[in-house]
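Structure (tokenized):
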């Protein structure tokens, strides 16, 4: 009986391992993030922090909830990263003018960092495009745009 049960468990595990989209997305995330993190490491910034910096640079003064929404980030992860970035002098955090809440804006050191990071980001971008192939990279951009356009996923 135990051998039959193990066989059934292995069949289920093999099926899930062969079909699971989550494991593939997580693998891609780890590999792709690793390429960007390695490229940006000499500047002291992670790929996730770079994403935050880009949102803030594009948006001017941005509420943390808006950054979290745009990047589909947990509020606690965003808070930790924004605090680290504030301590590095890359962003400023100030009270909002129109009521309660904070606003995050790019600081001069963040602007300089963004300029310094661009060539490293471009190298990472080219490396990931090489890993995925041009079609894979284009497919990934289309898939991300599709998911992004649907707004936050309800859990």
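Design, position by position:
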């Amino acid at each position: 009986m135990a051998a039959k049960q193990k066989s059934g468990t292995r069949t289920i595990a093999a099926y899930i391992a062969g079909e699971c989209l989550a494991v593939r997305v997580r693998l891609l995330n780890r590999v792709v993030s690793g390429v960007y993190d390695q490229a940006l490491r000499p500047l002291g910034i992670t790929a996730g922090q770079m994403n935050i910096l880009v949102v803030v640079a594009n948006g001017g003064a941005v509420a943390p909830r808006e950054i979290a929404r745009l990047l589909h980030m947990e509020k606690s992860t965003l808070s930790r990263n924004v605090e680290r970035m504030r301590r590095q002098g890359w962003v400023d955090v100030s009270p909002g003018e129109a009521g309660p809440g904070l606003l995050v804006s790019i600081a001069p050191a963040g602007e300089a960092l963004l300029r310094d990071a661009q060539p490293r980001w471009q190298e990472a971008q080219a490396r990931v495009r090489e890993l995925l192939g041009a079609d894979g990279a284009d497919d990934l951009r289309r898939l991300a745009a599709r998911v992004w356009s649907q707004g936050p996923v309800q859990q």
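Reviewer-requested clarification: The beta strands are 91-95, 102-106. The chain has six helices and two strands.
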